Amino acid sequence: MQDNILLGFLMQRPMTGYEVKKAMGGSTEFFFNTSLGSIYPAFGRLEKQTLVKKERRVEQGRAKNVYRITPKGKKHFLAWLEKTPKLANIREESLLKMFFYEHADAPTRGRHVREYIDAVDGRLAELISLRDGLRGVKAGRYRMSTLDFGIEFYRFQRRWYEKFLESLGNEAI
Question: Half-sphere exposure (CA, 13 Å, Cβ side) for 115?
Fold first, then answer.
């Protein structure tokens, strides 16, 4: 999946690994994030497959590797885009811990849920602020839709965890 994300960003314009990582911030990082340490090896694989081409540039006295997508890379990316997405399994640490809460004491359970709600509130505020900042800017319908999904997802999580906390009653104190 990471390879396709990199190709997707290169569909916009040639970029360095750092520029791709920066572009992911405030966009795809909310549903798929990666580190600079994994971006460069991925670019190496993509280059070996001739899906990207690396160009060495010197800007302000510093050498940079700029990657651009090749025609073969575009074809590969568009073929991936044509495939129906697979339903993903939820990988949520909070649910995993909750599954084993019978082994935790009541104050710990309540604290975890309250702290998780606080974290959800923070992420929700971040996404709403991002959306508000994009009003009037041409961000693209599909990109805005992923942002709206994130907002609705965290609103759902907040409601669900609040309801769960209520169900704990005095146990959550």
Answer: 7
Ramachandran angles phi, psi of 4, nearest 5°: -70, -35
* Mean pLDDT, residues 87-101 taken together: 91
| C-alpha triplet 23, 27, 30: angle, nearest 5° | 125
Give residue 47's domain range.
Answer: 2-82
Taking the C-alpha atoms of residue 74 and residue 52, their distance in angstroms, rounded to an integer, is: 9
Round to whole Å and give the CA distance between 73 and 57.
21
102 shares a domain with 43: no
Q: What does the radius of gyration of the chain's CA atoms come to, in whole angstroms?
A: 21
pTM of the model: 0.78
Provide the residue count of the chain: 173
